[in-house]
Amino acid sequence: MSTIPVTVLTGYLGAGKTTLLNRILSEDHGRRYAVIVNEFGEIGIDGELIVGADEEVFEMNNGCVCCTVRGDLIRVVQGLMKRQASAERGFDAIIVETTGLADPGPVAQTFFVDDEVRAKTRLDSVTTVADARHILQTLDDSAQAREQIAFADQIILNKTDLADDASLRAIEARLSRMNPLARIHRSVKGDVPLDAIIGRGGFDLDRIVELEPQFLNPPHGEAGHVHGPDCDHDHDHDHDHAHENGARGHAHGDDIKGLSLRLQRPVDGAKVSRWLSDLLAAQGQDILRAKGILDVKGEPRRLVFQAVHMMLDGDFQRPWGPGDTRESRMVFIGRNLDADALEAGFRACAA
User: C-alpha angle with apex 346: 248 to 269, nearest 5 degrees?
Assistant: First the structure.
């Protein structure tokens, strides 16, 4: 049986998650979704607001998403898988809508830590909806909102009709500094094309490189940009200083930042595996997400990895092509990132 893709839909209170979810469920796309709603409080309301007669909505109440709710989520998903096996017509995907006050990290981890869930599902995307009118103030005031941005592989910047273009550019610049991995889509009432956000495989290692070959290299001039062989920058060493942009704070003082590293020599597979495992064991609570493409000495294929807190997942992907620049790149998103220590640890993995 093929694995079922899962989209985690998150975003702060009032951002427009339920509006987007209703669009996903009501459009004529021919797919059927199972929906899991993570409510806050004893009495579920969001489930009553979700349209779609064919969809079943599973509620997890008292939904401050933490370890206890992760256990609830595992049980709900396991139950869905059993029903899927016996149903005449099952569902094509699962959508988990979190409460606006939730940290999506434990939800994302669920699809890495439980063997049964991992065998039958795959985390396709963490999609964060942000309210363009209020997001800057919300980021200043709410740690949860910053976590939601940090975990996203894509951000729906909603209610863009309520902000001018200069404000939208400033918002997008701040979001990109916090999370250089996430693609940003502008929308009004969640009107982003669904094929642009559903089934993209933002968390799927099998597809990530093919979908976003430049995911570790933001556009030139933006925070986190790393120098490639075609740039005019004059430097003769085997790494760059992209981390100085990625780690640098800005006027709003976000505690979550993105940091990018590059090494233009092959790495030792055993060394880099040990370094990443030790790093996540020691600092996993502060390293919210990490992704990388590594050139391992003696290996013709790319090693692609990603991490969610202390959960590390990696696999060798397609071979390096004749036109590819063989180098190792990685991005960390988190708090209290020590750029110099991370770069030193990465460089020590060189073969």
Answer: 150
**Are the beta carbons of 239 and 256 closer than 8 angstroms?**
no
4-203 homologous superfamily: P-loop containing nucleotide triphosphate hydrolases (3.40.50.300)
pLDDT at 1: 56
Low-confidence ranges of the chain (pLDDT < 70): 1, 38-70, 87-88, 204-253
Global confidence as pTM: 0.74
In whole angstroms, what is the distance from residue 310 CA to residue 215 CA? 22
Rg (CA), the chain: 20
What pLDDT is recorded for position 69?
52
Residue 54: predicted pLDDT: 45
Angle of helix 269-283 relative to helix 339-347, nearest 10 degrees, comes to 150
Q: Which residue has the tokens 């003696």?
A: 298
Residue 265's pLDDT is 93
Q: ∠ CA(330), CA(333), CA(337), 5° rounding?
A: 95
Residue type at position 48? E
Domains of the chain, by residue range, sit at 4-203, 211-347
Residue 81 CB partners (closer than 8 Å, separation 6+): 4, 116, 120, 121
CATH class given for the domain over 211-347: alpha beta
Coil, strand or helix: which one is 250? coil
Q: Are 46 and 26 in contact (CB under 8 A)?
A: no
Give the pLDDT score at 205. Answer: 66
Closest CA relative to residue 55, chosen from 27, 74, 16: 27
Q: What is the pLDDT of residue 274?
A: 95
Nearest to 317 by CA among 339, 343, 299, 341: 299
> Angle 209-27-163 (CA atoms, 0-180°, nearest 5)?
75
